[in-house]
Amino acid sequence: MKTALVIEDNIDNMVLITRFLKKFGYETLQAFSGKEGFEMTLRHRPDFVILDIQLPDIEGTEVLKRIRTCNIGESIPIIAMTAYAMTGDKANLLAAGCNGYIEKPIDPERVIAEIRRITSCFEGKRVG
Amino acid sequence: LQFRVQIAAQQPPARGTLLAHCFVSDTQGTKYVSGTALEKEYRDLVENANVVMLRWTPDGKITFVNEFGLKLFGYSERELVGQHVVGSIVPETDSSGRELSPLIQGICSDPHKFEHHINENMCRNGERIWISWTNRLVPDAKSGIKEILSVGSEITERLKEMERLKSIFIASMSHELLTPLNSIIGFTGMTLQGLSGDLNEEQRDNLSRSYQASKHLLSLITDVMDISKIEAGRVEAVPEEFGLIEVVDDAFDTVRSEIREKGLRLTADIPENLRIRTDRRRLLQCLINLLTNAVKFTERGGVHVSSSEVDGQLEISVSDTGIGIAEEDVPKLFEPFERLESHLRIKAGGTGLGLYLTKKLVTDILRGAVKVRSKVGEGSTFIIRIPKALQGAQP
After folding, report:
1. Are strands B302-310 and B265-269 parallel, antiparallel or unpaired?
2. Using CA atoms in the order B283, B289, B290, B296, what is the torsion angle rounded to 10 degrees?
3. Can you say how many angstroms the Cα of residue B70 is from the centroid of all Cα atoms in its chain?
4. E-strand spans in chain B?
């Protein structure tokens, strides 16, 4: 069973995401701040991370950078999540090292499709 | 008591000097009463107070402008006096495309309504400024209008600052609205997709109605956010090169189901190899808005998108065979929340902001212009004209 770490400060969104991830058979870990999210990524090495970009303490993009500069950080797929696509957001986030991108409001089926696409990509890499 | 009155005329006077001196003397001696000094004070007040003072005739001819006004607009007296107001200090159309000639008739026919009026004005160098006017009509002997006295203060900077504050407020407020709304959409969506168990027919109907309503609210909020961000100058174009046909296809995807439901045709005539460089996302947004609009007001026939090159610029036309727009309604089209009377019968969903946003996007971000050609009962064509290669910051 794959484990997802969700980094999101809004409780409703956290419940929504973890709830449907569970329905699709994922284990979930929850982090409510950027700092906590970064630490949990290193400690638990989840199969993928869903990272809200608007976080109260550290900006999501900063969390992304910190994870990416760690040894194990490179091998973890990270899916960025933003409330509203600002011009260039998607491009910027992908350039900053995100592997995937989802937009709120969240559509469970689309998110699952994005997760599957990205995790299978990474598996391919690991096998190769 | 007896007085002797003497009038001493001057040579044709220079601006700001007296035409004649008047001396009144009584039996005790001569008194100088024409009051050059007083007269000069009044003149100084009129000419140089920080307001524009203007006299003009009911047919729009300027008969007097004070010095402050001349300086503000950048004209000499000779250039301006005798000119028509419209075309000199009042532009023919304001920045939002509204014609201003009717304003002049409006001031004369409905003085009360236009007693205080804020409108765009134009300097000699083409610069647009905003002036807050008060207009007073002077009646003639035959109960007509002799002339109009207008006094105006320039408020361009104040308006800009107010606009900016308003836009910042709206942008941050809409952002706050999005968070709870996203939860509503997320949870109803999840339940509707059957992820929390089966739903009976009524439950499904209830939920899909709330889901649709919340999606509508979402598009309202995102439109308002886009508009306020553009108005606050916070949106920058992100130009990239792409084939026009790809964007048109993407835009088609968003209306295909409605086209099918209504039994309309959806066609495009765009060269396969036509490539442009502009902000793809914003152009797509404009095309979606125009297509959605076209489909909404078309019951028979179809919607057609075509392109052509005019003076090195690209024109993209979205034509429909819908109900069309009356000529007098055209200026209202691009105003926010304006629903045309002729269109009220049609149960129009939409945000009421689509065309307003489209115009903003095209003019402010894509550096182009939007036009419309329409005939009632025959259909409408909206034309976006944009540069083929937009200069701008790299993403």
Report:
1. parallel
2. 160
3. 26
4. 4-9, 20-26, 29-32, 52-56, 62-65, 116-122, 128-139, 145-154, 239-243, 265-269, 275-279, 302-310, 313-320, 369-375, 379-387
pTM of full prediction above 0.90: no
Q: Which of B175, B190, B282 sits opposite A108 (nearest CB)?
A: B190
| B200: enclosing H helix or E strand | none
H or E, element range at A102: strand A100-103
Instruction: Say if residue A105 is preceded by a cis peptide, omega within 30 of 0.
Output: yes
- Encode pLDDT of B327-377 as tens digits: 888 878 888 777 666 665 555 566 778 899 999 999 999 999 999 999 988
Are the C-beta atoms of residues A118 and A48 closer than 8 Å to each other? yes
Check CB contact of A112 with chain B, cutoff 8 Å. Answer: no
How far away is chain A from the Cα of B239, in angstroms, using its nearest Cα?
Answer: 10
Per-residue buried b or exposed e for A48-70, using 16+ beta carbons within 10 Å of the residue's own CB: bbbbbbbbeebebbebbebbeee
What sign results for the dihedral spanned by CA atoms B309, B296, B250, B171? positive
Chain A residue with minimal CA distance to B281?
A: A87
Alpha-helix runs per DSSP H in B148-279: 156-192, 201-231, 244-262
Q: What three-state secondary structure class fits B304?
A: strand
Size of interface A-B (CB pairs under 8 A): 59
Of B68, B104, B111, nearest in space to B83 by CA: B104
Rounded to 5°, the CA angle B151-B155-B156 comes to: 130
Phi then psi for B162, rounded to 5 degrees? Answer: -65, -45
Query: ipTM for the complex?
Result: 0.88
Distance from CA of A29 to the nearest CA of B (A): 19
Under 8 Å between Cβ of B216 and B256: no
| Closest CB to B193 among A19, A92, A108 | A108
Q: Which two tokens stand for residue B292?
A: 């959605």
pLDDT digits (tens, 9 = 90+) for B190-239: 999 999 999 999 999 999 999 999 998 998 888 888 888 888 787 888 89
- Closest-CA distance, B258 to chain A, in angstroms, reads 21
3-state DSSP: chain A helix, strand, coil percent, rounded to 5? 50, 20, 30
